[in-house]
Write a structure and sequence with these properties.
Blueprint lengths: L1 E6 L3 H12 L4 E7 L2 H10 L4 E5 L7 H11 L5 E5 L3 H10 L4 E4 L4 H12 L7 H12 L12 H11 L4 H8 L3 H15 L4 H10 L21
Parallel strand pairs: 1-2, 1-3, 3-4, 4-5
Amino acid sequence: MIRVLVADDHPIVREGVKQILSETSDIVVAQEASTGQEAIDCVWKNEYDVVLLDISMPGRDGLETLRELKTIRPKTPVLILSIYPEEHYAVRVLRGGAAGYVAKAGAPDDLITAIRKVVAGGKYISPVAAERLTYELDRDSNKAPHETLSDREYQVMRMIAAGKAIKEIAADLCLSIKTVSTYRTRIFEKLDIKTNAALVLYAVQNNLIDSGQIPAGPPPSNTLDE
């Protein structure tokens, strides 16, 4: 029996995963976690055949949690489950040690297939993600500016580009406004831009956000009291 730890901050998602896996004869949800820290605590205390991890959670996000989980139990495969399209995060999480990436908008069968494949020692990515990974590896010697961002900087960059103000980002990530502002400063330096508007343009030009995420009005200003 394949024992799965499901880590997602949305109860309805965890219930959905349990419902999907309940229809299989070889996979069972052994435990649930609602935060990255809870997932880490679970993995410290118990062994699982696979960890199903949401990439976007308050506090320790999925990327940070992934690194910690691979330190604690490097042989346990971690399968990333995300609302974001594969082109936004798949390459980054695979490089971070994830065994695969499954979009929440995908078919239930995809999740089951992915779990079985990574438990068997394989990697699970869609043809689109595989093509993107090959492309990224081919151009490693000449990285685009956004590829030099840390995982947290990349996350904050996408949130700013999607029109979120500093206060909103700080609340969503359980960080201080000062910390988020520091991340933004680093992002601007690495991308060689000066304003949020320029960041939105950069994100659009490099397909880092969906068209539906583009702010309808002017982006928030760069003041700390947003």
